[in-house]
Amino acid sequence: MQFTADHRARFMGSGWMLAALVGVPAVLAAYLTVSGLLRLLPADMWSQALGVTDFADPRQLLYRHAFLPRLAISLLAGAALGLAGTLLQQVLRNPLAEPTTIGTNAGATVALTVATLYAPWTLEQGREWVALAGGALSTLMVLALAQGRSFSPVAIIISGLVVSLTCSSASALLMAANREYSEELFIWQSGSLIQNGDAVAFEFAPWLMAAGIAAFLLLRPLRLLDLSDEGAASLGTKPVVTRLAGMTVAVTLSSMVVAAVGVISFVALAAPALVRLAGARTLRQRMIWAPLAGASLLWLTDRLVQVMPFPSEIPAGVATAFLGAPLLFLLLPKLRTIPDRDGAMLSSVRRRSGWAYLLPGLVAMALVLCAALVVGRGAAGWHVASASELADLLPLRAPRVAVALSAGMMLGVVGMLMQRMTGNPMAAPEVLGISGGASLGILLLFVATSDVNRPVMIAAGLVGALVSLAMISQTGRRQALAHDRLLLTGVAVATMASAFSAVMLASGDPRLDTLIAWLSGSTYRATAADAIIAAVTATVLLAIMPLTIRWLEILPLGEAASRGLGLGLDRVRIVLLVLASVPTTIATLVIGPLSFVGLMAPHMARMLGFQRALPQLFGSAILGGMILVSADWAGRMLIFPWQIPAGLLAALVGGPYFMVLMWQRRR
């Protein structure tokens, strides 16, 4: 093909844009770096300090073993993430693929956390191998879960979200059980580039060099993946082998980054996406420019967090998450949606009403409540409280039980509403971002003021939930609130909530213990006022929801059938989303954002026979309440005298449940 003047002009234009994309952040970062160096050490001492072994001036020590290694590792880690993201997006044909969204980082993190706390001998040969094993295992789990939908972009992202949430819950539990190490573990997990010597940088550089060579050796077969698998195979390549090789290089790179500096979120998403927008059309161009862009972006981010006026330094991995969440919103319209058969599945099971199961459910809930109030564990072992002892125990136990019961019932009902509204049995308030939005509003309140009380927290949470709903509606407007857009918008909102919570945890706020307990889903500080607020909200919700039963019976039939039966879908969905926001906000306030009750309870209700909308409504409420009350009781008893937060324990059960559900639906 002839290289015309138009092609030449277009190439030169894209070249200037790519150079600007890399150069502008690099120039800003260089300015901040030089300014920081001058504040640390006079310029005439820079070269001299490089060869000094006996440091007479402490500033030389900081320059040689803290400042320069940190600069080096920020460049190396950014380049590695840029290359890893490019490989993953090419291999999976997914513009949202990167180590955070497909679960690799979460698996590597939890593996290193377990090894550090309980098997430090496994780190003797290097943290890299432990991180690689954890990252590879979690990635394989994500791919296995997404296999049934042909590794579609949405299926991979949702599978990665579930695996990441499960690993995050496990990490949070480990930190709760090892509070003496929790601050150090948290800072590391959040992606801190602080260095103490140059050993990490020198160990990381050969891995990056080897991975880069391997990636460019795979360039030709990776380029052929732009074709269909049949087309690539006809040209002499094996697409499965190529994908496996590319995934191996990418997972290795991302695991090395986790081992070196912790989780750096979304640089691997941003760098390839930005260079593509700047004009890097071919894979070769992206493989060259994305590592450069990743290095400059992380370098600039690291310099910015060091000059921000904050009581303590924000980890770089947290700062990059603020970049990733808006970028997810920008990239969502570029994703192709795929037909969802979930609605047909939901409508095909509605044969029995389930009213016969309601009375046994109420009896079971009463027994669980009695056990939670009466049965306990003390210094002398297990104990059943007598009537006289209950007078002293009820003021302590009753608020916790009432809060757990009410929050569980609300989440169960809202989860049932979400699943029927979207026709997607994987929908839940935790997954769709409503819980994340509510927690985000509460976290912003913590930042804005020191005078925080329950009414103000409720208002802030409600505003956050409504903003989340507005983003969901805006994102899905062109696709009539398509299921895929709803779920992926939830990923973005959850990302922002996690980033803000990380900022708060790194801030040194004196309310940190309260915040950690709340984020974990604890009922430790439940009061009678909390119990009353939660109980009233749950009662009002159960009174209003039967008025929406006709909508909830029709919506799972699909969009065409719903419109044919006279439903105004946009209006109905907005009303239901708003109706879901208030109880979700209250439940998030009293039990925290970590929980899969909204997912589990409706499924369990259907499996037990509550298959019509109205019986499933009450069945989901009963089961949701039982799940959280049981989790709260088990959290108090399992490691007595210490406690496990109820929401965290429920999430640890709910995450694997979600994965089992996806595995069963993979074909």
TrEMBL record:
InterPro entries: ABC_BtuC-like, ABC_transptr_permease_BtuC. Pfam families: FecCD. It is a multi-pass membrane protein. It is found in: Cell membrane. Gene3D superfamilies: ABC transporter involved in vitamin B12 uptake, BtuC. Keywords: Cell membrane, Membrane, Transmembrane, Transmembrane helix, Transport. Signal peptide: none annotated. One of its GO terms (biological process) is siderophore-iron import into cell. GO terms for cellular component: plasma membrane. GO terms for molecular function: transmembrane transporter activity. The chain crosses the membrane at residues 16-38, 67-88, 100-118, 130-148, 154-178, 199-219, 244-275, 314-333, 354-380, 400-419, 431-450, 456-474, 486-508, 528-553, 574-601, 646-664. Belongs to the binding-protein-dependent transport system permease family. FecCD subfamily. NCBIfam families: PRK10577.1-2 (NF007866). This is Fe(3+)-hydroxamate ABC transporter permease FhuB. It comes from Allomesorhizobium camelthorni.
